[in-house]
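Exercise 7. Predict the structure of Citrate synthase from Malassezia pachydermatis.
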Amino acid sequence: MLSLSISRTALRSAAAPRQFAVAATSARYASTKTLTEAVSEIVPAKREQFAKLKSEYADCSLGDSKVSHLIGGMRGLKCMLWEGSVLDAEEGITFHGKSIPECQASLPSAADIGRPGKEMLPESMLWLLLTGKVPSAEEVKGLSQDLSSRGKLPNYIEKIIDSFPKTLHPMTQFSAAVSALNHDSKFAAAYNAGVKKTEYWHTTLEDSLDLIAKLPAIAARIYYNVFGKGDGKQTINPDMDLIENMSHMMGYGKSEGLVDYLRLYIAVHGDHEGGNVSAHTAHLVGSALSDPYLSYAAALNGLAGPLHGLANQEVLNWALEFEKAVGSNPSDQQIVDYLWSTLKSGRVVPGYGHAVLRKPDPRFTALSHFTDSRPELQESPIVQLVQRLSKIAPSVLKEHGKTKNPYPNVDAASGCVLYTYGLDEFKFYTVIFGVSRALGALPQLVFDRILGLPIERPKSLSMDALMASLKK
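Solution. The predicted structure, encoded as tokens:
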């Protein structure tokens, strides 16, 4: 029998040529450096730190794995490297060591780059997540302009989105469109051309920036096709920041309050450590060296689940039912009674509790403070009801005794503000979340390739095999 041995390099060279060349650098604007240059600066130190962990600490214990981890969703099991953020049960989320209030105080805002609004920009959060450093206003402005230059959708993506039936769920459309963008993947083209493993991160970063830049236009085109709102053209203004452009494309550009709220919402939702379903999925699929488009499309499918990204619309649905039952200005006792009726019916109170947190979610606190600063939100009955619930519900849940964390999570507040500003299409809320979560999941793909992390492949056991191992 004739046996053939073909090297991977030969297989790559035989692959069909890509239409798009690998991008070398980002455009330079008025900033002191581009984001690509800033990431390049941290690569040697990150690799040195990782090498030290492998050589000196590989056999150190992080605690024993238990049967409860195996059958309980791996909850709390320390087995994943995630650079951008750390979630502490008591302190909440920190981004490279910075809390949300610290980020709000230090990260450049819309006003800092000459745009209307006071909230920190998602571009600022993206820079922090990728570099671990607070960017200057000029660096953020340069990044914002770079993303604007990348944001236009290819014609084939527009045609794909336009071909979807209006009845197809917006998240399904979103995931499919993101997946189709892999046609233009610079990482896939470089891999097929035989690029060195140590250079994988360059084109992963390029793909990630291209994708983050295009997500607002994808979301806006889906919004227009399904709900008939927006300009229908997804026009990008190079003078506007990422979320300002998204708001204009969706038809809400004149609502300064909503634009600023979306900046805050997308910045604080961007990363929430790596163990959540969407972030973990992007990391898992990316570990097989799938490009960022395929990896993030998979993450969006996880985000679409009712136990993850759909939660905020479920909270809002419940709150509106609550308002319908008790009126827009109920007494405290009416609120308590309705909470107990929900619990006694066997349902949970949506928007309360968290898989990790044991204190109030600092993202809820940030969004709640935003509502306190806007007169139009203070006049909203549903916003006021949600705020009152956040003060009354914890004591009821404590008395009920079946909730480890009786405090509000971010979903308790996020939907009611969108609803008040007129963005009341519940099915679209998770798409907005999907625009946000890319800020954390995609930078981690860059880190995965800077560090050369291996394919993720945990060991599984059947129940029989598990029982047999326990009897030994």
